[in-house]
Amino acid sequence: xxxxxxxxxxxxxxxxxxxxxxxxxxxxxxxxxxxxxxxxxxxxxxxxxxxxxxxxxxxxxxxxxxxxxxxxxxxxxxxx
Length: 80
Prior knowledge:
The chain is of the alpha+beta class. The chain has helices at about 20-30, 55-80, and strands at about 1-5, 10-15, 35-40, 45-50. The longest helix has 24 residues, at about 55-80. It starts with a strand and ends with a helix.
């Protein structure tokens, strides 16, 4: 994942992993960010994700922590 554009309250990320950006989008929208969406112009092109909020770094960090927590709980259930 690569930061294409980063300004206060606005960030654009580029990656080839649609699954990753979709999960991140869902969790960011649960966090109540102003805007979180991704687009892919063509299957051969990378995905561009745009996030807007008052504190983008904090919101992304919180979303990643929530994703990790949920994945850890899934791993615990599967290991039983």
